[in-house]
Amino acid sequence: MKPCGEAAAAVGALALVAVVSCTTPEPARDADADAHALEKVAHLDSRTLAALREAENAAARGDRARAMKQVQSAVLPAAERAIAEAEAVRLATRDGRAAQGELIAVLELRRDAVRTWAGAIESRDDLRILGALQKAREVEEALIEWETRAKQMRRETRGGR
Fold first, then answer.
1. Residue 81 CB: number of other CB atoms within 10 A?
2. Where do the domains of the chain lie, and which CATH numbers do they carry?
3. Over the stretch 14-23, which tens digit does the pLDDT of each residue have?
4. In angstroms, how far is the first alpha carbon of the chain from the final one?
5. Which among 61, 77, 125, 132 counts the fewest CB atoms within 10 Å?
């Protein structure tokens, strides 16, 4: 019976460590550094968005070939780089890692929305194009929401400044 008692004691000790670590506030400078790092990664999405605008402009002019070339040569590579950078960032706080997971999810949504849009443009199906535009709008809203939360997190780490 002694091994069970030792196991129970070990589990109890781990539970205590978990409770203490969950209730111990994280240093503000770590949270601020995390927020800054995530904002830099989120900025990479602006490259994706700029390349996407060029593709959208080409499609609007009826130059589907140019739009598809832009998607393949610039938009999707920029989206993949942003995702890779977001995944590579090492953060110090639980809140930072949670925000990182949310950012990666939004960046993946952007990449998937671009693929959907490109397929719709290629198909020349107006309903698919409309659906792809709706998905793109949802991604924009998700990114704006994420950026708003990230800025709020940063303000909180600076004591409301």
1. 15
2. 28-157 (1.20.120)
3. 333 333 344 4
4. 57
5. 61
